[in-house]
Write a structure and sequence with these properties.
Transcription Regulator spoIIAA, 4 strands, 111 residues, alpha/beta
């Protein structure tokens, strides 16, 4: 499931939940491109993505290319561990240019 919301800033946020696989690709492509078309800046919240396959990666690449072509800003934020694993495996973290923040339960307790 994918949900969109508008934040107080000029940046829109699109939260993707569940799988980003071949089975959801057509719907997610349409939703992502529509959200990008309606916003000057779009943050795609990937915290709730449970699985990412190459079809999901292709949708993210397409969105990045579309953002560049239309001079809009696209940021991938709050990468889930499933997203981090795939982006690292395919060596795509630098392509998207968004920081991959790896949270550690033990680091949260330190000050």
């Amino acid at each position: 499931m994918t949900t969109a919301k508008k934040s107080k800033k000029a940046t829109s946020v699109l939260r993707i939940e569940g799988e980003m696989t071949i089975y959801q690709a057509a719907e997610q492509k349409q939703t992502l491109l529509a959200a990008l078309e309606q916003a000057e800046e779009l943050e795609v919240d990937l915290a709730a993505v449970t699985e990412l396959d190459t079809a999901g990666v292709q949708i993210l690449i397409l969105a990045k290319k579309q953002a560049l072509a239309t001079q809009r800003k696209l940021r991938l934020v709050a990468h889930s561990s499933a997203v981090q694993e795939v982006l690292e495996l395919l060596n795509l973290a630098a392509y998207f240019g968004d920081p991959l923040v790896i949270s550690s339960p033990s680091a949260a307790g330190r000050a």
